[in-house]
Amino acid sequence: MKLAIKFIIRNIIKFYYFFYSNKLSIRLKFRYNQIYSIWISSDIKVGDDFFVSSPLYLVGGRNILIGNNVRIDERLRLDAIEEFDGDKFKPEICIGDNVSIQKDCHIGAINKIFIGNNVLIASKVYISDHSHGKINSEAILLAPAQRKLFSKGPVIIEDNVWLGEGVVVLPGVTIGENSIVGANAVVTRSMPKNSVVGGNPAKIIREI
Fold it and tell me: What's the mean pLDDT when you consider all of the chain?
């Protein structure tokens, strides 16, 4: 039923895009996303003033907690994976207050991902607390997709962090408060607070 209603509303918006002004179409799309946000709120725990733009790709919504005044742009993939290849997990994804997540991001957990308050996440950011298998001689005997999921540890992104476009944050990493991570950086180890970070693998460029 929910899918049918969503299909009807989406096609009404497409109709107005074609025949009416761009300004009216934008307003209709905003109203649609307000309704969509309410629908999503029935699948995950969210705080006040939550807004998400369609579509949101969601797995394991009952393991996800989102704070107040959170803005999520289109095509976020949010995976709290409870089971893979017969293995059971107890994932947690916690997103704090006043967080902004831009388009085409992917956040995936089998362990724990914690994102603090006032965090800005640019487009195409990937945050994961796990990988397909350990990196050893036994694991490479299997195709990557057939390897067991493995977590080196939780990911913690502290308050007031800014992740630039295309950043990758890998398992077991903590990014200290007030830090800035430059575009396309790959963060493989923890970074202290008040750091400007960049590169692959990411290194401290300077302290704030």
Answer: 90
Q: Is 207 exposed, middle or buried (0-12, 13-18, 19+ CB in 10 A)?
A: exposed
Three-state SS for 131? strand
AA letter at 146: Q
Among residues 45, 132, 193, 203, which one is catalytic? Answer: 132
8 A C-beta contact, residue 170 and residue 150: no
Cα atoms in the Cβ-side hemisphere of radius 13 Å centred on 194: 2
What Rg, from alpha-carbon coordinates, does the chain have?
Answer: 19
Residue with tokens 């949010």: 78
Q: pLDDT digit string (tens) for 99-134?
A: 999 999 999 999 999 999 999 999 999 999 999 888
- CB within 8 Å of 190: residues ≥ 6 apart: 172, 173, 174, 175, 176
DSSP structure string for 172-197 = T-EE-TT-EE-TT-EE-S-B-SSEEE
Provide the H-helix boundaries in the chain: 2-19, 22-41
- pLDDT, one tens digit per residue, over 38-82 is 989 888 999 999 999 999 999 999 999 999 999 999 999 999 999
The pTM for the full model equals 0.88
Q: What is the pLDDT of residue 12?
A: 59
Please indicate whether residue 132 is annotated as part of the active site: yes
Residue 115 tokens read as: 């994102």
Residue with tokens 């293995």: 87
